[in-house]
Fold:
Amino acid sequence: MATNKIALVTGGSRGLGKEMVLSLAAKGVDIVLTYNSKKDEAEQVVEQITSIGRKAAALQLNTGEIKSFDNFIISLSSTLKNTFGASHFDYLVNNAGIGIHASFAETTEEQFDTLMNIHLKGVFFLTQKSLPILADGGAIVNVSTGLARFSLPGHAAYAAMKGGVETLSRYMARELGARKIRVNVIAPGAIETDFGGGVVRDNDEMNAHIASQTALGRVGLPDDIGKVVAFLCSDDAKWVTAQRLEASGGMFL
Structure:
């Protein structure tokens, strides 16, 4: 049977998720990452992980398609057995997400439902359905956002879902504590990725404004987040549960 710890990271083929899996792999963790549509990107990340001596696999998953989760868990169980020689995995990182920028007044029901399914309902039920194969003593990291603490126009629905995730995480921590499973939230600030069309990365004016409002004087990079997730999964954080750790460089203090 497998002796290495195994992490499942949703949306692990790009952006923050890619840095999360690479940071976990660098700490000796084997990886199952999911991707929505870009299989080639996912396979490239798998190759990066295997090149440093860790095992890795990529599985397709749309975290907004709740009805697909039962089949995904079957596929995940098969992958754990065939690729890793394991029946369980140790760490679940609910990272997959999209951004939809719309004012509160103009947000459509379709936009609301899309965000809800991916960011809240998907996290709830994917975690629930993973419980039989999530190892006792493991860890869950749910991804929120600085926007659940401070308010910037255009993010009402998105931030509301993340606020829900933060509350949900405390309940998960309370109820899964009997199995010694820790549940924490990481809340990134503005990060230079292609998220939301790459607006933080590509809009110089916005980038400079955010940097000017951040204690550490710059916008975040994906690497700033990946290592914090790896910490929260590790035994170094064995006494940390039900906490929200904002990694924003001190935005809007």
